[in-house]
Amino acid sequence: MSVLKEFNRVLKEKGYKFTSQRQHVFEVVVENDGEHLNSQEIYELVRKKYPEIGVATVYRTLALLEEMKLIYGVDFEDGFRRYEIVKDDKEHRHHHLICLECGSIKEGENDLLGTIEEEILRKDKFKVTNHKVKFYGYCDKCLKIMEKNNKTHT
Amino acid sequence: MSVLKEFNRVLKEKGYKFTSQRQHVFEVVVENDGEHLNSQEIYELVRKKYPEIGVATVYRTLALLEEMKLIYGVDFEDGFRRYEIVKDDKEHRHHHLICLECGSIKEGENDLLGTIEEEILRKDKFKVTNHKVKFYGYCDKCLKIMEKNNKTHT
DNA sequence: ACTCATATAGGAATATCTCCTAAATATTCG
DNA sequence: CGAATATTTAGGAGATATTCCTATATGAGT
Fold first, then answer.
1. Footprint of strand D on the protein (CB under 7 A)
2. Distance (Å, rounded) from C-alpha A36 to C-alpha A116?
3. Which CATH architecture has domain B1-86?
4. Among A110-124, B20-34, B131-145, whose mean pLDDT is lowest?
């Protein structure tokens, strides 16, 4: 699995050790891409394959992975820090569409915000290097359900 | 002070009571607009004027104010939930510019994101009703300092 | 003022996450 | 391979932010 080799390589490059704990945590995050797992959930999943692992190690490893820009922590305001994989090696250029009805989280298109960031540089003299963007509203599915309910009500 | 009367009116409208605790919490948030106070800081400030207040009451009141859409909680990932006043009575249409160098938080222009939200409706079939947007980067001041340091280095 | 539902204080409880330390382990070098 | 060494880990204690619990207090309507 080349993604693991790459992980090993980046670790060594930065002088970190390649331990089985780190490997397992990384694997779980990779295998559950798109799930937005939180630390607890990752801990539970890792324990299935590596029962001896400690909570602190999971937290440490997640922090390390984030520092290495392999993963990315998002706060969906549910009390947990949730993680996802960084896809491109540049910046975390994407955003989330969070449905207020069903709670689903969809990842949005990249690059929508580029022009805005230029405008911010012009207007506010602020050089944007990254962003965390969450749009709240209603997903396609829930919109349709709500429309139908409205019709039956009238 | 008409803002307090308005507060009283909205409380009654929703069947909530106008207590001095709620009044003091609300006042502190209003008086420190732009400061992005967290719950602890609000608690401390309220205690100066109303020493008997309890922590739980402050949390409850902040949750109530947020539910009433009078204030708005933001997570700057420093471990605290921070609050600011909702200015327009519609949506929280603004964003934050967070400097990675000095940690300053500036509030950005409204309405920058309107066109993007239209595009999201078209492309993703997702109806946006609100957003939480944080841009990370470097503020004017820090950019200048960094430029200067670069020059002296070469 | 009386009534009653709601709100509060205060502390205990919970939950997430971090710190601490002795033991374990990855990596390097001979 | 095996020894040396610095890093990493497990496990639990600790820290911190927030919520829950309950008897008491208080606002609002009559």
1. A 15-17, 19, 21-22, 50, 52-57, 60-61; B 8, 11-12, 17-20, 38-40, 55-56, 59, 63, 79-81
2. 27
3. Orthogonal Bundle (1.10)
4. A110-124
pLDDT average, residue stretch A139-147: 94
Model confidence over B21-72: pLDDT tens digits?
Answer: 999 999 999 999 889 999 999 999 999 999 999 999 999 999 999 999 899 8
B81's tokens: 């939930």
Q: What is the pLDDT of residues A43-88, one digit of tens each?
A: 999 999 999 999 999 999 999 999 888 898 888 888 888 999 887 6
Which residue ranges make up each domain of chain B? 1-86, 91-154
Round to whole Å and give the CA distance between B66 and B62. 6
Query: What distance in Å separates the CA atoms of residue B93 and residue A11, rounded to the nearest whole number?
Result: 41
**Tokens 């599915």 belong to residue:** A141
What is the CATH architecture of A92-154? 2-Layer Sandwich (3.30)
The CATH number that domain B91-154 falls under is 3.30.1490.190
Instruction: Say which nucleotide is closest to residue B19, CA to C1' distance.
Output: D27
